[in-house]
Write a sequence for this structure.
DNA sequence: ACTTGTTAGTTACAAAAACAACTAATATCC
DNA sequence: GGATATTAGTTGTTTTTGTAACTAACAAGT
C-alpha cells in the first residue's frame, strides 16, 4: 500500500501558526503573569482600554473576538485587583463603561513597553519589507 | 499626560499570530471533532503516526512539542476508540511503540486530505513566493 | 549488589476554558 | 400597554489543560 503523503504537518498552515503563536506567546506571558498575576484575557482587556480608551465589555468582545464570559471574568478580576473601574451608563443601564484606574494605566504602560520591545526582538531577523509582508499575511488570515 | 501608543495591538506579533491561528484552526477543528470526535492533541498524534510511521509517545512529545501528559491522554483516547494500538518494546519495557489500526489509517487518510484541501484554500490568495515566505517566517518564529 | 539518577509514561489535583442557562434592561410589534 | 424578542452581562456546570507527584524500568557508579 502506497501512502500519499501530500504534505508535511510542518507545512500545514494552521499547525504552523499554532506552533509559532505558542512559541512567541510564551515569553511575554511570563511577564504579565509574574509581574501582575494576569491571565491572557486580562492582559488583553487591559491593553484594549489602555490603548483605545474606555469602552464596554461588549466592545472588547467584538474587537478582540473573545467570548463574553471570558471578558466578564477578566473584567471582574481586573476590577478586584484595582486595575479598572466600571460605571453604569445612564442612557442604557445594561452597558457599563470600563476605564483603567491609575494602577491600571501604570500596568498598561509598563506591559506595553515590554510588548513593544519583545515585538522588536522577535522580528529582528526580518527586513522591514519582510515584516510588513508577514503582518499583512497574518492580518489577512486572521480576517482582521 | 501624553500617551505613547507605540504600537497597535493588532501589530503585536504574538497577538496577531494567535488571532490567525485561532481563525485558521477553527474550520479544520470542526471536521476532526464532528467526524471522529477527536481533540486537537488526538488529531496531532494520529497525524504523526500516519505521516511519519510508528513511534513512541516520547517521540511525539519531542516532535510536536506537546507535554507528555497531553500525549498520554490522547493516546489512551485514540486507543480506546480503536484508532491505534500499543506494543511494549522488549529491549526496553518503558517504551511502547504506537501504531495505527486500519481504522486509524483510514481516519488519517481522510483527515489528511481535508487538511491538504483546507491549506490550499487558506493560501489561495497568496502567490507561490508569498506562501513560501510566510511559511519560512513562521517556521523561524516557531523555531522549527 | 545497592544506592543514586534518569527516562517513559500515568495519575491526581488545581487552574482555566467552553458551553449553556440565567438575570436584568431595553427594544419591538401587535 | 403588554407579550415577545434582543442585548449586556453574570453565574454555574462540564471539559480540557497545566502542574506536580508518582510508578516502573533501566543505567551507572561505587
Amino acid at each position: 500500500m502506497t501512502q500519499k503523503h501530500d504534505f508535511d504537518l510542518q507545512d500545514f498552515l494552521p499547525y504552523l501558526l499554532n506552533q509559532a503563536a505558542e512559541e512567541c506567546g510564551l515569553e511575554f506571558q511570563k511577564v504579565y503573569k509574574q509581574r501582575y498575576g494576569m491571565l491572557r484575557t486580562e492582559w488583553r482587556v487591559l491593553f484594549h482600554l489602555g490603548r483605545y480608551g474606555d469602552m464596554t465589555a461588549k466592545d472588547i468582545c467584538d474587537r478582540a473576538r473573545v467570548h463574553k464570559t471570558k471578558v466578564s471574568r477578566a473584567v471582574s478580576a481586573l476590577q478586584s485587583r484595582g486595575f479598572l473601574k466600571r460605571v453604569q451608563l445612564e442612557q442604557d443601564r445594561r452597558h457599563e463603561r470600563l476605564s483603567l484606574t491609575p494602577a491600571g494605566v501604570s500596568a498598561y504602560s509598563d506591559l506595553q513597553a515590554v510588548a513593544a520591545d519583545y515585538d522588536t526582538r522577535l522580528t529582528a531577523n526580518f527586513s522591514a519589507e519582510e515584516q510588513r509582508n508577514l503582518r499583512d499575511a497574518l492580518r489577512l488570515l486572521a480576517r482582521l
In short: Chain A has six helices and two strands.
